[in-house]
Amino acid sequence: MQIADKKVVSIHYTLTNGEGEVIDSSRDAEPLVYLHGAQNIIPGLEAALVGKAVGDELEVSIEPADAYGEYNAEMTQVVPREMFEGVDELEAGMEFQAETAQGVQVIRIAAVDGDQITIDGNHPLAGVKLHFAVNVTEVREATEDELTHGHVHGAGCDH
Ligand code: ZN
Fold first, then answer.
1. pTM for this entry
2. Which of 47, 62, 81, 133 fits a disulfide with 115 by CB distance 3.0 to 4.6 angstroms?
3. CA 55 to ligand 1 center in whole angstroms
4. Residue 96 bridge partners (DSSP)
5. How buried is 58 (Cβ within 10 angstroms: 0-12 exposed, 13-18 middle, 19+ buried)?
6. How far, in Å, is the centroid of ligand 1 from the Cα of 153?
């Protein structure tokens, strides 16, 4: 069975950045299982998997535009420390969830300078070219429920 829309696909992957550093990997854990054609994974990886089958291995490099987007400097902002009421220690790298006009967004602290806190709403991998080494481990038909919901059901699904 080949990977196409409405298939449930399991992959093992190693994700590295341009410097060859491993950012993420499924290899010591369960494979990543996703519903193909439902935008469950980044567009560049989904496109590269079309037509692949169990046992196939591929290496793919994905430009930021087809991954987590370009880095947008306008998504950084300097805010006063009072914005983080109740948090004693503020450090670069900390993440918070914030309500925004676009829904809940993860905001990362980019820098702390006294009472001036620089926050960054970019995805941590925005602007990063990604390299995936992927093995396809399973391909099956999606169930009606999965197609209706737009995601995979199984271990870890809460309904
Ligand atoms: Zn569901």
1. 0.80
2. 81
3. 27
4. 107
5. middle
6. 6
- Distance (angstroms) between ligand 1 centre and the Cα of 143 equals 11
> In angstroms, what is the span from residue 59 Cα to ligand 1's centroid?
30
Q: Domains (ranges, CATH) in the chain?
A: 7-68+125-149 (3.10.50.40), 73-120 (2.40.10.330)
**What are the tens digits of pLDDT across the range 37-46?**
999 999 999 9
As a residue count, the chain comes to 159
Measured between alpha carbons, how far is 91 from 44 in angstroms, rounded to an integer? 33
pLDDT in tens, 6-47: 999 999 999 999 899 999 999 999 999 999 999 999 999 999
Cα 5 to middle of ligand 1, angstroms: 17
Instruction: Please give the distance, rounded to the nearest whole angstrom, from the Cα atom of residue 10 to the centre of ligand 1.
Output: 17
Q: Check whether 156 has a pLDDT greater than 80.
A: no
Pull the structure tokens for residue 116: 């001036």
DSSP 27: T
Ligand 1 center–CA 138 separation, angstroms? 20
User: Residue 158, class by beta-carbon neighbours within 10 Å (0-12 exposed, 13-18 middle, 19+ buried)?
Assistant: exposed
